[in-house]
Amino acid sequence: MKNYFSLITRAPVRVALSAALGVFLSGNLMAQTIDEVIVTSQKKATGISVQDVGVAITALDSNKISDSFSVDLRDLARFAPNAELDTSATFVGYPNFYIRGIGVNGSTRTADPAVGIFLNGVYLGYSPASLLDTFDLEVVEVLRGPQGTLLGRNVTGGAINARTKRPGDEFKVEGKLTIGDYNQTDVMVGVDIPLSSTSSFRISVLSQNRDGYWEDTNSGTVDTSIYAPGYPTTELLVSDDNPNGIAFEDAVPNATGTKSDINTQTIRATLVTALSDATDLTVIGEYYTSKNGSANSKNITHTAVPKLAQTRYGFTRSNGDYDIDHNLHGQSDVELWSLTGELTHDLDHGVVTALASRRELVDFNTTTDFDGTPFTLFHFPDNKENQEQDSFELRYASTFSDKFDFTLGYYFFDQSYYVGERRQILQTVNQAGVTEIDHDISAFFGQLTYNFSDEVSVVAGLRRTSEEKAVKFSPPGSCELDFSSCTTVIQKDGEFENTTPHLALNYKPDEDRLFYLSYTEGFKSGAFNQRAQTAAFIGPADEEKVSSVELGMKSVVNDGKLMLNAALFMVDYEDIQVNVNEDIDITLPDGSVETASGQVLKNAAKAEISGLELEVVSYLTDNLRVNGSFGYVDAEYEEFQGIPNASDLKFARVPEYTYNLGVSYEVPVKTGLVTFRGDYSYKDDYFTDLNNDPEIMQDGFGLVDLSVSYDNDDKGYRVSLYGRNVTDEDYFEFAANVGAIDTVVWGGAPQRFGLEVAFGL
């Protein structure tokens, strides 16, 4: 529940921000210039400045991440134009990322993402539990547009490339304590330990604890003239705590309480050692565990087509913006570990890199009250998942010529995952089903940069990918509740091959400016239909394909005080994987043919996407910094199976435009520096579903974040008061229209305030 911390912090925040208007600049600041951010996604022999890469990239270093009080990748979306880094909301920690209008809307496990997530160069192949915390990150790159040559499959929209901090060569302790509304208590500690003149070690630990933003009060009401006591058979009861509310005899104990509460722990160890003058080894081990609450599903009344919650029960949900009504106590328990090793060897003519990783999602166990009502309309009780993956990449990056450089590489990836899913729909018997996937990928890739002169260069790249998928699928209702045995097992496999080129022309008239024109292709893996009921509907669908043309400009001018980046892009988006309802003729064992109706995953759509992106950072004075971004996307279907006027259909979860504006003002004081920051981010309205249901369209909304920080460099600490969504904007992250059963939304985070103390010794 929201505690009284906000009453303590809001007044000081208001006073501090008001006082800023009357503060006269005391003392002098050093001349401010825009920091250079080094990126590694281009896989060259050494990292390079993001401003020297002819690719649309928003690069955020650890200072920017810390100054924005970002908790996970979702919080960074506001700084990257045309990036929608939201979750599916159905399952906690399940990314549904979109970049430039391309993404995946939903949580079907067999549907691969269109925005790839990479951690320390390793692709995270399974969406559950891949929503990265910003804890201990050195830099995050948001790459926009297909990245098929260097990063491979499932990056048709773009990619998130995150790199964790490496240990320094001196002993250092850094930490952070955050307390805030909803009983938030987060603790982070990182320690760098030199082991010898050639080796160093870093250990970092994170603990996060917070109550949920939503209160499960079960205080909705029922119209007894509509409610049918025979469906379900339980009696309508009145709660002592909620005399106007409802509770059922079959409700799970302790169903009331907060939702989306957080309880996570992470430990990461990093060893960097020089094996010789030419050979370096980095080993990173990580362990993560969480026992979090469930998603905050809230039933809404669909006025055009009333659903069962209203027609059968006469239900009206709780009035409070952050009140919900569940009869199933949700959970999301996760345990995972990973081990990554990177070996680099410097030859006279180039650098050889070998990157190997093992990642195991030991448990991803979830219980979800999907329908958001005190009735059993649609539940996922006690689902069980696990996944394991191995990956290996070997590459060579040349250094022997100033005229050209190239990267050649081989990549291998193998994963297997298991999904045991239980569904309970409309008070029916709990049904269990199982999906198992084995997935292998191998690829060869190369990219060459040739410099015609100091000003003009050309980049050419190519990647050849081969992959195999084998699925074993038992539909819901065909398995025992403990998943011990299944009466139906459907087995299918698919093989997919793809070649993705990249070609770019760069013009760099001076050190401060870069202009580029590029053509890039990418693809998203072929996929099976996890919602199939028979073998005829399981697929697979072929790969999605993307071809993108981009014209861009990057510049840092005015003596390093102004950065202006811009990009125009046009995308052909083909063979879009869509679930459509079809009649299929099925040949029975006796030779007869039967027509069955069902949901089929098909390459059923084609679209064109174009847009514009702007990014700016400017020091108007040595004290005053302004940053902003603007994104515009025009996404239009050209074809869509079963829809005559496809161009009238809007993309789901893609606002036409987004923008962000941030201002920071620094005031030197006798003992340090006081910094005032404000940030406003806005999203245009957008539909949340493929059918463009106006009842669950998200109206345009803006979020305001404010903070004031005091830095004492001599003592090595910083104290900050901050507020997120300070105007308490009511919005939702996800919505679903479940046929005749239900209409549900999942709300965004409310207003909250916090106090953060950071130190470095």
TrEMBL record:
It is a multi-pass membrane protein. Residues 50-159 form the TonB-dependent receptor plug domain. Residues 1-31 form the signal peptide. Its main location: membrane. Gene3D superfamilies: TonB-dependent receptor, beta-barrel domain, TonB-dependent receptor, plug domain. It is found in: Cell outer membrane. Belongs to the TonB-dependent receptor family. This is TonB-dependent receptor. It comes from alpha proteobacterium IMCC14465.
